[in-house]
């Protein structure tokens, strides 16, 4: 099939026929035409217009330190515009959410782990396909004497056979041993945290967020009987659950609505969305949740109104999000985000990015499934389940293909060998487990114990 036949058969491809012009204007200067880039889950490619707009801004504006707090500070005004633009992408505003800029998603998770009020009674529950950065939060829970649970999907997520089994319940994969100890009676409110990727890094699985996040969000105001997520400590008058969503991969091809899913925390990296800048991520926090965070852990430049080097009995923190922002933010770097999102808003749109990438993935997967050796041995094994039962129950996949390749004898080829062969042909792809050990173990059939001993 030549390109014109492909386009005719896949009208969703190519951003309404502008893809060749986009490539010429945005990538031809810094990206060779004979190279095939397939590592957009690692980072997407930045565009020429982003660089031009940002460096033109640096050439033509005088940007002062935001802490100087001048009334006509251009830096402050532009940063606030950028913050509002970011929140608008999430279908919300600064009235409901605030942003702490971080180095990346991992740094945002680390920061949240130090701010969250984990205690002896706290439980941290996370989905089995979470990134290492989400799993790492459990270290803080353990240090505070709390417990953790790993939530798994229905078994049919891993089953290639089409079956009509109606049990689509989430399962508990395992719990820490502290979950099994006797509960401590207390009338004092305590806080627990549930975390999930909106789309995992392993194979792009997107869970039904209404079923996964909805119960926790509804439990803020209502007592829910028969809670559908198999956590150990259920929401109650004393037990308050907050929610964290890892949007790092999801946002590369789809927008996330905080109006539809008003979770407490979102973490992301901007290079995953538009390639530039690196070294900049965000922790987005629901304003109502700011009051429970531990701002007393530290104070630094810009986060306090008054302190004395001699008297530690009085510390006056700034109000709202400012109490958690220590030191000068990377203000010139932050301003480049504006140009990245303008590219999506004005030239591409999340709708067309999603349609374009999904049609490529579907076509590629279908063609790869046809590949066989002369003896009939198939070449590709995909680690996903794509059938009507999956879609009917609210699951979907982002534009990731995760697969292994067989040799003619039905044995797996080394992923490092595949990477070297691809590199020899100017193909850039990613191999390994993609920092998602739970997903790789689940799909590869790794057996884990029901309970962990810490």
List keywords for this structure.
454 residues; alpha/beta; Aspartate Aminotransferase, domain 2; nine-stranded mixed β-sheet; two-stranded parallel ribbon
Fold and architecture overview:
- The chain has 454 residues and is an alpha/beta fold.
- It has a domain at 66-344: 3-Layer(aba) Sandwich (Aspartate Aminotransferase, domain 2), CATH 3.40.640.
- The chain is built from 15 helices and 17 strands.
- The chain has helices spanning 3-9, 19-26, 48-60, 74-89, 105-115, 132-135, 138-143, 177-180, 209-218, 271-274, 331-348, 350-369, 388-392, 415-424, 437-444; strands at residues 36-37, 97-102, 123-127, 147-152, 171-176, 190-197, 205-206, 239-246, 265-269, 281-286, 304-306, 316-317, 380-382, 396-397, 403-405, 427-428, 451-452.
- The strands form five sheets. The chain has a nine-stranded mixed β-sheet, with helices on both faces. Strands 1-16 form a two-stranded parallel ribbon.
- Helix 3 (48-60) packs across helix 11 and helix 4 (74-89) crosses helix 11 (331-348).
- The longest helix is centred in the C-terminal third of the chain and has 20 residues, at 350-369.
- The radius of gyration is 24 Å and the shape is globular.
- The termini are far apart.
SSE layout:
Layout: H1 3-9, H2 19-26, E1 36-37, H3 48-60, H4 74-89, E2 97-102, H5 105-115, E3 123-127, H6 132-135, H7 138-143, E4 147-152, E5 171-176, H8 177-180, E6 190-197, E7 205-206, H9 209-218, E8 239-246, E9 265-269, H10 271-274, E10 281-286, E11 304-306, E12 316-317, H11 331-348, H12 350-369, E13 380-382, H13 388-392, E14 396-397, E15 403-405, H14 415-424, E16 427-428, H15 437-444, E17 451-452
Helix pairs in contact: 3-11, 4-11
């Amino acid at each position: 099939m030549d390109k014109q036949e492909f386009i005719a058969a896949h009208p969703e491809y190519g951003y309404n026929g502008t893809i060749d012009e986009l490539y010429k204007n945005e990538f031809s200067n810094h990206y060779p035409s004979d190279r095939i880039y397939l590592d957009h889950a690692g980072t997407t490619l930045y565009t020429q217009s982003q660089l031009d707009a940002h460096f033109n801004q640096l050439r033509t504006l005088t940007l002062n330190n935001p802490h100087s707090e001048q009334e006509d500070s251009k830096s402050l005004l532009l940063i606030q515009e950028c913050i509002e633009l970011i929140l608008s992408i999430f279908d919300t505003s600064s009235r409901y959410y605030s942003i702490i800029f971080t180095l990346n998603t991992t740094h945002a998770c680390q920061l949240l782990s130090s701010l969250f009020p984990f205690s002896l009674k706290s439980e941290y529950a996370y989905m089995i396909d979470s990134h290492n950065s989400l799993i790492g939060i459990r270290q803080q829970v353990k240090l505070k004497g709390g417990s953790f649970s790993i939530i798994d999907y229905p078994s049919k997520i891993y089953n290639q056979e089409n079956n009509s089994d109606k049990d689509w319940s989430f399962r508990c994969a395992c719990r820490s041993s502290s979950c099994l100890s006797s509960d401590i009676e207390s009338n004092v409110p305590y806080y627990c945290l549930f975390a999930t990727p909106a789309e995992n890094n392993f194979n792009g699985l997107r869970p039904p967020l209404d079923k996964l996040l909805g119960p926790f969000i509804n439990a803020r105001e209502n007592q829910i009987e028969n809670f559908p997520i198999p956590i150990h400590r259920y929401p109650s008058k004393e037990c308050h659950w907050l929610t964290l969503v890892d949007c790092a991969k999801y946002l590369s091809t789809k927008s996330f609505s905080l109006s539809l899913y008003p979770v407490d925390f979102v973490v992301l990296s901007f290079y995953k969305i538009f390639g530039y800048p690196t070294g900049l991520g965000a922790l987005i926090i629901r304003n109502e949740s700011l009051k429970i965070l531990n701002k007393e852990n530290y104070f630094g430049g810009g986060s306090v109104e008054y302190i004395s080097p001699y008297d530690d009995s009085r510390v006056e923190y700034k109000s709202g999000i400012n109490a958690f922002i220590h030191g000068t933010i990377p203000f010139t770097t932050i301003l480049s985000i504006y140009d990245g999102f303008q590219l999506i808003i004005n030239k591409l749109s999340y709708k067309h990015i999603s349609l374009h990438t999904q049609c490529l993935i579907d076509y590629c997967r279908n063609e790869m499934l046809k590949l066989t050796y002369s003896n009939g041995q198939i070449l590709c094994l995909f680690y996903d389940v794509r059938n009507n039962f999956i879609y009917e129950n609210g699951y979907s996949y982002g534009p990731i293909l995760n697969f292994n390749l067989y040799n003619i004898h039905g044995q797996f080829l080394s992923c490092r060998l595949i990477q070297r062969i691809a590199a020899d042909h100017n193909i850039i792809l990613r191999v390994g487990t993609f920092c998602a050990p739970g997903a790789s173990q689940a799909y590869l059939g790794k057996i884990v114990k029901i309970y962990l001993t810490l």
